[in-house]
Amino acid sequence: MKRVLDDWITKAEGDYRAAIRLHGPGAGATHDAVCFHCQQCVEKYLKALCTLDKIRFEKGHNLLYLLGLLQGVNPSLELFRTEFQNLTAMQWMYGTWRFR
What we know:
It is a single chain. This protein has 4 helices and no strands. With 100 residues, the chain is mainly alpha-helical. It has a single domain, classed as Four Helix Bundle (Hemerythrin (Met), subunit A) (Up-down Bundle), CATH 1.20.120. Helix 2 (31-52) packs across helix 4.
């Protein structure tokens, strides 16, 4: 389990670094690329938390689904519901995802 947990964290941090680079001065990135990596970062951190707490999750990209799974063990994540909704909305707006 530790390796899977470490993999989720490593991937999340990679997406975070990508978003920072793309958003930096002179990067010229499109907003959809920055939003994509931000959403991916949050998704992978939430999956890391699920892994840590031994919560099974289905394949997918829905942050609110993952939030629902984690509410019982980490209710403080509810504070981020609006931000998770906004990231999800950005994905829909830019057409990056098609949630199941």
